[in-house]
Specification:
Blueprint: H1 3-25, E1 28-29, E2 36-40, H2 43-46, H3 49-58, E3 73-77, E4 91-97, E5 102-107, E6 111-112, E7 115-121, H4 124-154, H5 162-168, E8 170-171, E9 179-184, E10 187-194, E11 197-206, H6 217-232, E12 242-244, E13 251-257, E14 260-271, E15 277-287, E16 292-301, H7 308-318, E17 322-323
Parallel strand pairs: 1-6, 2-3, 2-4, 4-7
Antiparallel strand pairs: 5-7, 8-17, 9-10, 10-11, 11-16, 12-14, 13-14, 14-15, 15-16
Length: 326
Amino acid sequence: MNKKIFITLIASFFLLFSCKKEEHTLPRIANGKINNIAIIVDDALWNGEVGDSVRNKFAAPVLGLPQEEPLFNINQYPIKLMEGFMTDSRNVIVIKRGDIDQFSIKKDEYASPQNVFHITGKSVHSILDLIEKKAPQIIKTIHQNEIDESQRLAKKSLLKKDFFENKFKISLQIPSSYELMVQDANFVWLKKEIISGNTSVLIYQVPLSVINNENSIVANIITMRDSIGSLYIHGKEPNTDMITEEAYAPYFFVVNLDGKLTYETKGTWELRDDFMSGPFINYAIIDKANDRVLVLEGFCYSPSKEKRDLMLELEAIIRSVAVIRG
């Protein structure tokens, strides 16, 4: 055989082998709907106290929704099927008996992006104890994973960032499916039409004194929301502006957004003397550098339809905010 041809064949072989090896080692792409968890556990545990504990923790009602909806949709698969398609899920919880009591999180174990939570216990009691202790951490991690996924999908087509930079000195990732409804000097309303209704994002700024006065912070936020609704958001009939529903106290949290003290409020909005209502999530960012409270709110109207995933999309949009320095 010609020496030159032989060398070419050898080089081709190694190139092909290298490509095949690289293809084999590349992680699979994680898939699945938003807010879904694959629970890998044998039927004997799932049909007993362990399954009850998992359902109580991970299918508990979402706070701030008008109708009861679970935190996550959970799908159970026996351990023996672990090599199957469910390992491509973004969120996987593996529960089994073992020689030690152990909890661990493995990132991108079977696919990417993915979090796999391993719970191993020597007894049912040990497993239940680990679920009780680690559930808050697991829920927080999965929720952030779903926020990241929603933001990743949104980046495929975004509204031009210059508008938000010029008007509010912020960077914000809003999908191009949202349209500008109302614009004022310190206020913007963007809305997206969906089959079951619509979702909206509000952006506005108010003086720091609006939040930090002698009344409670929650009362101040409700008053602020209702005044904005009175000015800009109305139904078809006269005197049907948007207000915070009085029947249920909103949920209130102190969080950190873009490195700033932020008040997060979740509750229900309604149109005064009208039938329309739905959930909202409001973030009041204390932006002392710009001497303002920067408010970003998401709300949806989707009668008789599930709203959990719509609100997660709105939360993901708001959490992409970054105040431009300088």
